[in-house]
Amino acid sequence: MADTKTGIGASVRRKEDLRFITGKGNYTDDINLKDQTVGYFLRSPHAHAKIKSINTAKARKMDGVVGIFTGEDVAKDKLGGLICGWMIHSKDGSPMKAGPHPVLALDKVRFVGDQVALVVAETKEQARAAAQAIVVSYDVLPHVVDVAKAMKSKANVHDVAPDNRVFNWSLGNEADTNAAFAKAAHVTSMDIVNNRLIPNAMEPRAAIGSYDTGTESYTLYTTSQNPHVARLVISAFHGLAPEHKLRVIAPDVGGGFGSKIFIYGEEVACVWASKFIGGRPIKWTGERSESFLCDAHGRDHVTKAELAMDANGKITGMRVHTKAAMGAYLSTFSAAVPTYLYGTLLSGQYNIPNIYVEVDAIYTNTAPVDAYRGAGRPEATYVVERLVETAARELKMDPAEFRRKNFVTSFPHQTPVIMMYDAGDYGAALDKALDMSDYKNFASRKAESAKNGKLRGVGFSAYIEACGIAPSAAVGSLGAGVGLWESAEVRVNPIGTVEILTGSHSHGQGHETTFAQLVSERLGVDINNVLIVHGDTDKVQMGMGTYGSRSGAVGMTAISKALDKIEAKAKKIAAAVMESSVNDVEFKDGTFTIKGTDKKMGFGEVALASYLGHKFNTSEIELGLKESAFHDPSNFVFPAGVHICEVEVDVDTGLTKIASYTAVDDFGNLINPMIVEGQVQGGVAQGIGQALLEGAVYDEDSGQLLTGSFMDYNMPRAANMPHIENFQLGFTCTPCPSNPLGMKGCGEAGAIAAPPAVINAITHALGVRDIAMPATPLTVWTAMQSMKIAAE
Amino acid sequence: MENFNYHRPATVLAAAAMLKKSKDGKYMGGGHTLLPTMKQGLAAPTDIIDLTAIKNFGGIKVSKSIVTIKAGTTHMEVAASKDIKKAIPALAEMAGKIGGVHVRHKGTIGGSIANADPAADYPSACLGLGATIETNKRKIEADKFFTGMFETALKAGEIITAVHFPIPKKSAHQKFPNPASRYALTGVFLSQDGKGKVRVGVTGAAASAFRATEIEAALTKDFSAKSASSVKIAAKGLMSDMHATAAYRAHLVSVLAGRAAAAAK
Ligand SMILES: Cc1cc2nc3c(=O)[nH]c(=O)nc-3n(C[C@H](O)[C@H](O)[C@H](O)COP(=O)(O)OP(=O)(O)OC[C@H]3O[C@@H](n4cnc5c(N)ncnc54)[C@H](O)[C@@H]3O)c2cc1C
Q: What ipTM was estimated for this complex?
């Protein structure tokens, strides 16, 4: 290990935080360009309606108005619509039914908030006033907001899908699975709802689009998790401009949780419209209420799930049928979420010989649904862990032992649903979690709680997830429109400082620190002498961005490969300068030495020599020290772990408190344990949010979003978390065999694991089979009423 | 938000005159209800008459039997007042549970009571303590003040200047916050005076704050937690929304009254 203070495994303080917490970040809304105008979107007040006419005459004459654009203008200019980048085929072989998704609504609006017109003015007040003066004549159509009812509704969201079904996808062997159920000694069957969530990143979405009339090229500043993908889509599918005439910059981005992966109409409209107002930049900064209405939501599944077991309590089969809401349009990666990110994880940590899953993806008149922290895997884990917990209770087995009995124990393990688990030790995580949570003394804690009028319960979640989706050829064969590799470039400056250009994007993850730690480890350079450059398509050649916990396993591996090349070349130069054979050069702790001699050169000296070219033959060894690499992983990585939650339910009010939470995770090797812990804590907070607090509610009658602000949508607060002393984190480690760093991914684990752990604990406390998420005081109290649980 | 004329009168008299002169003016205390509604386009007054520059518009006076809180006093000042903590500790406690720190530093007692939000905390204290609301025109008993959802006995242009709270023998406040907004999903403020008379003010449960007379009767007979919590409140007439049904709110009134009775001091 080189510099143990800043290398791999050191809990180095995050380099970027000082900038962020002192208000010196540079977010899209902080940027102001010369001659900038303000964009404002007129949005649909209806869940579903035909647009009969849009009259902008009066609005155009108002003070400060620079331009007004509607769907017709977009169509006239032949700007392409928004795409879904993953093609799913139905069981019967037919392709998914993707309805049109214009940048600005054309002919029809399909959810409350759908963008109808872009108004550009000198000030926001003027733009808003003009938007209010636009007269839109609507013919209101029947709408449907409930995924469970949409296939039988008289509302028809898209003509291409008369029953609102986008596809009917399946995975696994149906006949074998049915046979396993026919032979089963016990079957556990459940109806499971995964509640719809609204991401609410701290920074709302924003964009500044501009057109340079001189170079005939566009620039888009935007809140994106993957600026290169945005450029690719806007160039290749919207057809705005070829890639070399379009620069996309995602500067500091204040959180995304998936919602900023996607390409949205607003950003495209701003950059497109600039050309029609003489190239003046158009800035749009979403308001919080726009985030609620229009950012892609997450989850929203209704599922019937069954588990078959033999007489010994061994799981023999699983059968799942899910209705997954897609919302009004197919968002960028939406089709992949309830399919390849969901069905493939239904084996959980268990050896299940037969699995069959069918998924109906369904349009509703709501905001589009796409990846949100965990994306498909929380939904899968919720199904698996609610089923397994309930099965254990029905079999009167300890839920921990029932799980252990069914764990996968030898690796590699091929599941019936595509995945090949490469490494893991699920029993070790379970043992550690049982120990840390003091499971054996649960009964005495329960008795103590009862004295205070509280019902105590304990719930488990033994989750597995797959991150760093790969390899590219495999995802391509499953319908992905892109490859899922990552690229990196390492530029060593003449004085030995290092610039890393990466296609990963940091929007809270701490890449500026962790990526620098890798360089520090490998080159012996202090992390303060490393610059991480990302988020600008003019600086970084290509990249696939940050989501699905891929930046470590995929992004850092690309950097590591480029560093291999740097080291190899630096060795050649060091050998030449020190007049030795390259085979005798050793590199350690930032110093090159020649075996058997006292000759040595520091990394900085070799860097300088590489640019001077004084002491080696520049026709044999190329000048400079700069290398790049692409990395395409050979497999997913499989983080897994066991989380145990204890809750206390107030019998009088139904209020649930997290009494304690224990998370034991196997993320392989950790680069910065402090950052990893932060990721787990944040993920668990979001998972507790889903289980207890958060839920998007649309009014069935009006189609309006009822939870359109923080007054009604309940984001987790610090006080909703377990006390820090009762929030324990532990780690086990089976290094990942498919990347040289042995890392897995840690960004989503908490959000994946927590919901079933919490709900299993509440149902245990109450002695009920199920309770809906979010388990609000009202929901829990109502359940207790029907159970006649009451305080003495 | 629409443009408006902004005024900072120095006296109550001037403020009232300004409002009369304006086309569609509004008084502003801390602005913590008024401004959000303006931002959402739900209100668009032509004139804002900011009351906070009026001399001596805020302030706390505690006599032997009465706590007087002037209209411009912020929730933070009430929560931190040593005199109130001694005289009516539950009142200081209640003020300390309103919103967050930021809200408490801006929101005023006058604004809160004039606004009469069905989920606001002060109305329960006014009813639970039998307060008198003083305006630039008259004095109004709390029992006659809260007339409906966002509705009060205030006449057009009338300015609240102070609230007088009789000091009880003991009192307590219990709040079950709305999980999202943290306003009162249901809140109960109860007190018992020297003669044993009990008052129970309830907020959050109905369109307007009200007195739970059945619980008052039960507690007057037997001042105990059990006595309060075993009173069944009728759900009829209470509010129902996604956070709480009327039945749940009715249940919470009894539970919170029981807890308040146990905590009263
Ligand atoms: C995020 C947030 C959370 C909150 N949480 C809570 C909570 O938990 N509990 C709670 O009780 N409240 C809560 N509030 C409300 C807040 O505490 C204030 O009490 C409330 O906003 C009104 O006080 P104000 O001084 O801000 O009045 P303003 O907003 O200035 O005025 C409100 C109304 O009263 C009128 N008005 C103001 N002063 C007078 C006066 N002296 N005489 C006559 N009319 C007057 C105004 O014209 C206006 O119509 C919250 C507010 C926010 C923004």
A: 0.95
